[in-house]
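REQUEST ID: PR-0412
SUBMITTED BY: lab tech R.K.
PRIORITY: routine
TASK: structure prediction, single protein chain
INPUT:
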Amino acid sequence: MNSFTRIASVVLLLSTANNLCGEDAASTDAPAALPAQWKMPASSLLIAEGSTSPDGRYAIAYPKASEDDPALGRNLLVELKPFCVLALLDGDGLSAGSKRLSLSVDWTEDSSEVIATTVHDKWDMIVGSTLVVLKDGQVAKRVDLLDAINRELKPDFIKSKAEVYNDVLPFILTESKLGFESGGKLVRVKTSAGNDPNEARAIAWTASFTGVWNVAEGRWQSRKFTSKTKRNI
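STATUS: complete
OUTPUT:
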């Protein structure tokens, strides 16, 4: 399986049973419970094309009406048989059903771990990237990789005194690659960051980040970034 395959919008309707599971397994990286509004039946969801795990047990799904309803614009990790919503994945109001978004899904060969990354077509920017570790059919660990990267870069961005990208995001991540190494023990990340893709800010900040996330330890095993600040006045 290609670690960085770009997945198109979702086309296949779930046809499995409608029983819903209870809560995510307790973990320092996993929520105590799945929010009630996301415990959806299979009949209200679609499966993301190419997102099914190697063993056929799991997949990424999204609500049917999510393209027209921002409140439903999120992706979900589901178990197919018996059907069960396992986890809500990170994003910003866009699901795999959006024509403005693409979904990249990377599974380990044993189907015990997945990285689901959503990318907006504007500037090719990441709007969500979630690592999920499964054990006995439950979520053992859930990591917001986008947040983990942003936390490494934010202090340098603040120090630069550059203007924010918009009212929500101080900067954006583009040209990003995230994928497993060493059989899922590690996640390798390579990305670029910036606040000024239009080159219109008085102060433009850019950065390049590479890192290796240790899945078992829940931390960066190594990371490195370089940054540059340019004054356009």
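NOTES: The first helix runs from residue 145 to 160.
REVIEWED BY: pending
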